[in-house]
Amino acid sequence: MDQEFDPHSILFHGHGLIAVDKPVGVPVHRGTGHDTGLTELLGEWISLNPGLLDVRPGKKLHPIHRLDLEASGVLLLAAKTSAARSAKRAFEAREVSKTYLALVAGPMDSAGQLKGKIRSKLRGNYRHLPASLSYRRLRGDERMSLVEVRPEGGRTHQIRALMARAGRPLVGDLRYGKPKPSRQFRERFGMEHFLLHSWRLGLPEKAMGRSLDLEAPLPAAFHSVIEQKGWSALEQGPDGEWVAQD
Description:
Shape: globular
Largest sheet: 10 strands, mixed
Strand content: 25-35%
Helix content: 10-25%
CATH superfamily: Pseudouridine synthase
Radius of gyration: 18 Å
Number of strands: 10
């Protein structure tokens, strides 16, 4: 991967934690088929720019959670073992609030909940485990919907799998959606991926001594689809929540 870390993507750093806005197409860390990932890119940038963050150059960074290769948004990493342990405990105890934005195929109710068992990896083995999410439609028509999603827990591909089981796969999702309409969406809207964005993440006070509320800006791809669909632009109310479309 011939790519450099963008320091403008840093959303927060302190208390042994670093939050970044992960771009689409960059894995969280190196692995199968990828020589490097965002974790390694950030580590290299820290080594080349000592002192800009309160992190010792060469210090190993620990991703606290995962995002799909084609997903974007808030990603939390730890530069200290104690911070990693505290943050992971909060995730495991389901004390972390997570809000995603997703573009799905077809119409959706104004709000609802999805539950089911999905294939997920636990302690090295794949099993069918319970998963759930709640959603709120922000924009939509009979062919496509933009939804705000709050997953419970952190199963692998949880949002994608549950939406697909409900007959509303993420548009452009070649793995969980139908191949032909997925490719048609990508061609029509000029996309190379499905649209899933980790918009907001909140850590409780006990995880790091202060509450932490992180937010990653809406990517250009979402704005592009909203504009091409002729939907009204997203507006935030006084409480910071986006206003749903009637």
